[in-house]
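Notebook p. 47: complex prediction with flavin-adenine dinucleotide.
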Amino acid sequence: MGIKGSSTAQIYFNDVKVPVENLLGKRGEGFRIALSILHMGRLKLGANVIGAAKKAINDSVKYANERKQFGVLISTFGALKHKMAEQVIRLFASESAVYRVSSDIDNLMKKMTVDCGDYGRASIEAISHYAVEAAILKVVGSEMLDFVADEAVQIHGGMGYSAEMDVERGYRDSRINRIFEGTNEINRLLVVDTAMKRAMKGEFDLFGEAEKLYSGLETITDNKINGESYFQEKSRYIKNFKNAILICIHGASKCFGKGLISEQEVLNNIAEMMMESYVSESLTLRVEKMSLTNGNVSLYKDMLDVNVFDTASIIRKSALEAIGSFSTPDSCTSLIKAIENLSRVECINVKEARRRIADKLIEDNTYKF
Ligand SMILES: Cc1cc2nc3c(=O)[nH]c(=O)nc-3n(C[C@H](O)[C@H](O)[C@H](O)COP(=O)(O)OP(=O)(O)OC[C@H]3O[C@@H](n4cnc5c(N)ncnc54)[C@H](O)[C@@H]3O)c2cc1C
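Predicted complex, structure tokens below:
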């Protein structure tokens, strides 16, 4: 279907003998090395799709700035500005998560190399430590590229369906990313399963925090503080989103116990909330950092505003779906009220925010964010 520059074939190993001197690593440690390679592959896929998405956005805006319909350039239409702004926002947000995880892994790798003196072992351990984040990057990145590539075809109209245009190839090439390096269904399950297993091992206190929230559902508010700054407000929203996740994890674990593993729809709801919150937090951290050095970051704040606004809807929808599957008539009302408070964000003019982002892209005629 796509990636025609990469040949794909099955290889079978039947009764293959491997000479002892060809053993990679130590005997019995192969699975750990293989898993680490999977994590690394997911991390790299998350980064890889960024370049492809930038190319698709450049193709989109160039075409929209040339093609005329009804006597005007199609880039002047609000519906197309919405598409191009969304392409930019989703790309920039995914990229923020990629930078964050890469930097976290680099830092841990350096520390572990100093601690154990073995770079190879430190790499495996550091990458494995960020297995959940690697799975998030893989799912978020591949779905971001599919969205961007699909809208690129749409912006080209009928020409987008023609094999002579680059966007047609981009659309086909994009599709594999949701399948290889572990399908997105498997990676979504991994996001929740790995985090819960780590919490059970005591690596962080997930269940204690969740229990506290669950026992005080009636007292949960949106935690709004008077006079909070722009970034304090965004951080509060993200903390609220995380609390909504904890409530769902606790409620689902209590209801299904060990059977939660078979409740993939609920695990998907929780994965969705974890992934979107992680990306929104990464974007917040990036824009806040930029604001300290870059002067005017108003367009990046527009991106953050739209992203957090959309994440709040996803949190609300996913949490309510999960609650529907595990709540009792007694707990339902207080759970819904808690989620409504935790997913509340101020109303903003997302239409104008998207238009400003699209106008900058259209003016530059290329992706320069
Ligand atoms: C172009 C291409 C290149 C590839 N390159 C490589 C490579 O270099 N190395 C390599 O090792 N592999 C490679 N693969 C294989 C690829 O990793 C697998 O195709 C992929 O992991 C999915 O496995 P599958 O095809 O067996 O699908 P299946 O496992 O049969 O999945 C079918 C569907 O069922 C879903 N599903 C399966 N199990 C579950 C579950 N437990 N819970 C919920 N849903 C589930 C899947 O998400 C999917 O939607 C490549 C594949 C392609 C197409």
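Notes: The chain has a mean pLDDT of 95. The first strand starts at residue 68 and ends at 69.
Next step: compare against the earlier run before touching the bench.
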